[in-house]
Amino acid sequence: MPDIARRQLMLAGAGLAAAPLHSAHAQSGPYPNRAVKIIVGAAPGGLSDAYARLFAEQFTARFNQPCIVENRAGASGIIATEAMIKSPPDGYTLLSTTTGMLWQTRVLYRKLPFDLAKDIAPITVFPSGPLIVAVQEKTGVRNLKELIEYARRNECTMGSYAVASYPHVLADSLNRHHGTKIQAIQYKGEGPMWVDMGAGAVTMAVGSYQAFATVRDKGVRPVATSGSVRSPKLPDLPLLSEQGLTAPIAKLEGGLSLTANSAVPSEILDLLAKVAVDGNDTPRARALRENFAIPDATKGRAEAIRQWREDAPVWIREVEALGVKLD
């Protein structure tokens, strides 16, 4: 084995993977030696944007190189994704978007200018925290069992912040498996959805704690949370799975993914993931999770790869069952 290769392996084994790496692609020096750009598939202010800017600060602090965040909202994240994929696969252009964009979009569109199953490599997935399932207090519903019974007897509406989002899939799953009569009402984001929820225009809704909290004193009652970990803001509120829901959607969790072109060398992807994991306990990272009621931190690239391998196919099957196409 050449001396340089042996030395790199020894450094990695000693936990020094943050040392500059040489890319398999032609560069003027070890990676990183110039600015990195993160393209965000959403407008400023959301969680994808917040995580991207947090990572940019951590990257700059680690390597003393600029990390620029560029927001390219629109077309359900397709514009941002295409821009990243068409950039040189050298690790200097990254993408911050939802896992839903990278998983569910595969079956929502008949034609895409890229192959999401082949062109994207995960770096890490930042958790988005459990979602709150809430109903109008006037329904008298206090838990999942009562929600199902109510929705069997009554025509109901569920606010959904996007086609094929968690609430859309949940409504469809309850209808298919429990005989409920829930119509998903699609909104352009959480903001207008929760406004209508607070005004009593929809029967129920599902979304982030931060957004739910804006209407919790307007006749809206939380009855369950999604995922596998309870909300730190509502620790006494049981999960859907704890209340007996066995459908896949009960435990499915999405997140905010940081990805790169699949042709980027794996050692660069590993290095970038390590930056994110090492930054979990910084004051800014803890404050972000506290603000958005997120109980857990990113676990790095190995967990991201597991999610791509095990969780993505389940999400795709659930979205396929909706029978929805957006083009």
Report on the structure:
By secondary structure, the chain is of the alpha/beta class. Helix content is 38%, strand content 17%. The strands form two sheets. A five-stranded mixed sheet has the order 2-1-3-10-4, sandwiched between helices. Helix 7 (166-178) links the parallel strand 6 (156-160) and strand 7. The radius of gyration is 21 Å and the shape is globular. The N and C termini lie far apart (52 Å). Residues 1-19 and 22-26 have low confidence and may be disordered.
Order of strands across the widest beta sheet?
2-1-3-10-4
CA gyration radius, whole angstroms: 21 Å
Unreliable sequence segments: 1-19, 22-26
**Approximately what portion of the residues adopt beta-strand conformation?**
15-25%
Number of helices: 12
Number of strands: 10
What is the helix fraction of residues, given as a range?
25-40%
Described by strand count, sense and barrel closure, the largest sheet is: 5 strands, mixed
**C-alpha end-to-end distance:** 52 Å
List SSEs in N-to-C order.
HEHEHEHHEEHEHEHEHEEHHH
Q: Quaternary status of these chains?
A: single chain
Protein topology:
Layout: H1 3-13, E1 36-40, H2 47-63, E2 67-71, H3 78-85, E3 93-98, H4 99-103, H5 105-108, E4 120-127, E5 132-136, H6 144-153, E6 156-160, H7 166-178, E7 182-186, H8 190-198, E8 204-207, H9 209-212, E9 220-225, E10 255-261, H10 266-278, H11 283-291, H12 301-320
Parallel strand pairs: 1-2, 1-3, 6-7, 6-8
Antiparallel strand pairs: 3-10, 4-10, 5-8, 5-9
